[in-house]
Amino acid sequence: MTDTLVPWDDVLAAYDPALGLEVHVELNTHTKMFCGCPAVFGGEPNTQVCPTCLGLPGAMPVVNGKAVESAIRIGLALNCEIAEWCRFARKNYFYPDMPKNFQTSQYDEPICFEGWIDVEVEGETFRVEIERAHMEEDTGKSLHVGGATGRIHGADYSLVDYNRAGIPLIEIVTKPIMGAGAKAPAVARAYVSQLRDLILALGVSEARMDQGNLRADVNLSLAPKGTGGLGTRTETKNVNSFRSVERAVRYEMQRHAAVLDAGGAIFQETRHWHEDTGVTTAGRAKSDADDYRYFPEPDLVPVAPSREWVEELRGTLPENPVERRARLQSDWGYTDLEMRDVVASGVLVPIEETVAAGASPQAARKWWSSELARRANDAGVDVVDLGVSPAQVAAVQALVDAGTVNDKLARQVFDGLIAGEGTPEEIVAARGLAVVSDDGALGAAVDAAIAANPDVADKIRDGKVAAAGALIGAVMKEMRGQADAARVRELVLEKLT
Fewer CB atoms near the end CB (10 Å): N or C, the chain? Predict the structure, then answer.
């Protein structure tokens, strides 16, 4: 069944959106949150488990100190207050990937609270207020086999892998984001993108959305225009790319408006995001806090970070993202529009790493913001998930700078990189992409172009040097773009002037 959607302009004319984002960050600690099992991605199913993370009787949890440190650093970077005393709680619910039938989390006493982060969208700054950032453990992972959707409905059977159960998580929850209007989808994307940049700068997580290191839940509600209130919200779960965050907000705004315009009511529920179709579908009724029957975790002592330790950790924080962008823009010589495009495309970090690998800022921007961003858009993925690394982009540009390939041939090198054909140098050799600069081969091609275009040759002999472009183009076409265009021009003029 396809949802009815209201045209975008009609949504904006009748309703004000309110956003809320819950981002789960999987920490890169060596061990899990409450036991000594390895906290690594992959591995054979159910091989990275023990009695504690499986919730077996008599197993006792112990808090991972590195995870607490990472939580505090994240909170400080988000301008949060750090609790002098906090504790864990049991969040009770049954689901197959929760082996204990409860999740060890934090409830009314989070370690970080009352923070904020500024994001910029199209020249306008939005302050996103952070309600809390709390510690918890991840769940296992269910695999539903059979059926058409990969979900439990219609599946033949389900498998559960508990390797991920117990991995440290930080859940960062915003307060309602009001007043974004038409920019609401872009604000959501910019916030998650900037948050990921911050997490990477802190070094506390790999923050790879494709591997689930960073997952966003998108809360959305609509209220009648100008009322300043909050409507009933829905929560789209586990959105795993910047592009999808933006699309999910836009879709839900149009879907909510259709329900409300028809006189219906929005149900407070979770929604599933479908990357292939760009739609959401109903999940389950959204539980309130009372439904989880929270109570303090009796097997864990409270966490009470000293003020001295907090200040020590404050000294380890990276450069503020907004200040960093301003510095990089100045260092790279980008215009405001160029920098805005870079940030909007989510390629600031790849460009920075490409420049660090030896490419010029303009060359790095050219490849990431245009060529690679276009390919990512065509493939429906984020550019950082395209499969091309900053070091590879710098290596391609080095080949261009050396005259080994030109920009046109470099695009074919990127084809090879995305296809996994090896290093840029190996791809050039295997595909025969190197620019031809041998005067013998070029001279023969120039002679053939002159013979085939006598009228153009006569114009050049008469002093109309601009006409040489036609002959150069003919030579480039004959040599499949692999001729050294500058040398071809020299040879044409030598022969005709």
Answer: N
